[in-house]
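[job 0412] stage=complex_fold ligand=zinc ion status=START
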Amino acid sequence: MPHAGKEDRMRYGVSYYPEHKEEEELSADLALLKQSGINTVRMGEFAWCRMEPSEGNFSFGWLEEAVNELGEAGIQTILCTPTACPPAWLAEKHPDILYVDNRRIRRPFGGRRHYCYNNETYRAYSVRIAEELAKAFAGNPYVAGVQIDNEPAQEGTGRCCCPVCEGKFREYLRQTYGSIEAFNRRTAGAAVFSGPRSTGILRRFRCL
Ligand SMILES: [Zn+2]
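[job 0412] stage=complex_fold status=DONE, emitting structure tokens
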């Protein structure tokens, strides 16, 4: 009998990364999780490269095995969209998804959160992997919830200075203030811009 739907315990959980484990390690980890009183784990937030190892080639069996094995032992899963870590093939195909720091340097692939959230290409691929994940786990009795992304704006990505972000920020200012004169008046001399192309606009307002 699945444990899902009968959750009346306080949730006590931890992150778990089966993508970095050998299959036989799961059983040993499971015993430790049970011994620690863990009843919920969250999984998948950095595993895009395992869920979609190449473009359009989706692979969720390894994650389903982990979800089911944990679930049968009474440990439910918060399933995470993997959008915090777009895979290398995506960055290689669309390097414009990588974020640009406040020195105007496009940061290389690596680590996590190496992308611009405003980039439409990144967004389109994110929607697709999230939909595929949802389809793969729809109805799974051991999935207790979903996490959308992970630590937004960490690792500097919330301060991306790419042309897309700069354009959106200028549009935000235009809609908020209406004119350069109104903006300069409202900011009370904190910054004075002479035109919409004043350099360093994002460095001053978003990247310091
Ligand atoms: Zn950007």
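Helices lie at 23-35, 48-51, 61-72, 88-93, 120-137, 163-177, 180-186, 201-205.
[job 0412] exit 0
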